[in-house]
Amino acid sequence: MRGVISLLRKWRFILGLLVVSAVVFAAACGDFGGQPAGQEEEAAGDEGTAVADEPELTPPPEIEGEVITGDLGEYTINFGIGLSETSPQYRSVEYFRDILEERTEGRLQVRIFPNSQVGDDLQMMNALQSGTLEMTYPSTSPATGIVPELAVFDLPFLFPSPEAADEVLDSELGQEMLDRFDGTGIKALAFAENGYRQLTNSQRPVESPDDVRGLDLRVMENPIQVDIWRTLGANPTSMAFGEVFSAMEQGVVDGQENPWSTILTSNFYEVQGYGSETRHVYTPFIIMISEQFWNELPGEYQELIQEAAEKTRDYQRIISREYDQWSKERLRDEGMEITELTDEQRREFEEAVQPVYDRWAPEIGEELVERVQEMVAEFEER
Ligand code: TK8
Q1: pLDDT for the residue 55
Q2: Which of 135, 186, 257, 296 lies at 20 to 30 Å from 289 by C-alpha?
Q3: Is the CB of 143 under 6 A from ligand 1?
Q4: pLDDT over threshold 90, residue 210
Q5: Beta-ladder partners of 76
Q6: Residue 123, ligand 1, Cβ within 6 A
């Protein structure tokens, strides 16, 4: 029987490899909503186009723990992400890969596919559910179709600091959210940090809600993100991340919103002249694995992957915060005019989007929204 299982596993592995290779080939031809081939080369860091340098980063922690020995089989994890090789997200997946490969002497291999090469967030989550991709690391916003309660993190101005976000995400409430993926074809291992979202556009400086009026903006595929910008008088369009650069370059949209490190490492500054430090939403990432693949793994490998995901989360938060302000300054070096809002100006945005809470708290669950707000308030009082 073991021979049959191992043969099946080999066939699945070969099939998976064929699917992923076909997908990678298709992506190279620009078929997967990723950046068209030309821009992928740029995003790959050709000198003189993509931003080649990076901030002084805290080095990844030493890899500790025994090597896992025994005839537990060999597996390859194809790990797709939306951001580029210079992003803190990518750097953290390299650390995840190194932990697995070192602790199993290469019996667990990780192949990283950045730049939406094997699909955008929704496509990669679907690929996990169908077992054609092993891991991905999307924002919570596009995952609300699978776990609706995640929408609480789409509420504007919810977290006053990254530490307050960590407090909630790493609490029992956060674990409850991750556990809600069980049975959906996805196992959610840990949160990480996408970060505070900042508005950019090609038209004008923005320092008040009035300046937003009439802007055509790309937003994530999530109804609350659409509502936020419609409430501010913009014309929001939901779009997969891999299509954003081209849409801005062709003038299909005037702007988008993402953390400074994404705006920098996805070269958005090349087509966006104005940035505003709105910090209007804090978006978490989720490190996730295909439930089908997870269930086939020996328990020792499951434990290692869970441990590695939590270490990856902790490290990614550190370098994400090191990238944040450094990226803002690099964007200025690249010619972007960045408006830093005063507390008063940011309060004007908060007041303008209060109706979003009123409309969506009942949808998300008043009790859940209040639980998160109480945890944040208690944390801020410490
Ligand atoms: C990358 C996306 C991105 C998100 C977005 O896969 O879509 O704008 O902020 O980070 O998840």
Answers
A1: 86
A2: 257
A3: no
A4: yes
A5: 109
A6: no
Q: Whose CA is nearest to atom 9 of ligand 1?
A: 258
Query: What is the model's pLDDT at position 197?
Result: 98
Distance from residue 82's CA to the centre of ligand 1 (Å): 7
Rounded average pLDDT over 293-315: 98
Domain spans in the chain, listed from the N-terminal domain onward: 2-44+71-194+284-332, 198-281+334-381
Intrachain domains 2-44+71-194+284-332 and 198-281+334-381 with the same fold = yes
Structure-block tokens of residue 340: 């830093």
The pTM of this model reads 0.87
Pocket mutation for ligand 1, best pick of 84, 121, 320 (most atoms within 8 Å of C-beta): 121
pLDDT class for 18, splitting at 50, 70, 90? Answer: low
Ligand 1, atom 11: closest residue by C-alpha: 139
Taking the centre of ligand 1 as the mean of its atom positions, its distance from the CA of residue 167, in whole angstroms, is 22
pLDDT of residue 85: 96
Residue with tokens 């094997």: 118
Rounded CA-CA distance 336/345 in Å is 20
State whether CATH 3.60.9.10 applies to domain 2-44+71-194+284-332.
no
Distance 284 CA to ligand 1 centre (A): 10
Q: Is the pLDDT of residue 198 over 50?
A: yes
Which pair of tokens denotes residue 224? 């609350």
- 32, amino acid identity: F
Q: Per-residue pLDDT averaged across 257-266, rounded?
A: 98
Best CATH choice for the domain 198-281+334-381 from the list 3.40.190.170, 1.20.140.10, 3.30.70.20, 3.40.50.300: 3.40.190.170
Beta carbon of 83 within 6 Å of any ligand 1 atom: yes
Average pLDDT over residues 183-197: 98
* Residue where the block lists tokens 């953390």: 259
In ligand 1, the atom with minimum distance to the C-alpha of 219 is 8
SS3 call for 141:
helix
Cα(259) to centroid(ligand 1), Å: 9
Average pLDDT for 56-71: 93
Sign of the dihedral through C-alpha 245, 247, 248, 253:
negative
Task: Work out the angle between the directed axes of helices 366-381 and 354-364 (0-180°, nearest 10).
Answer: 120
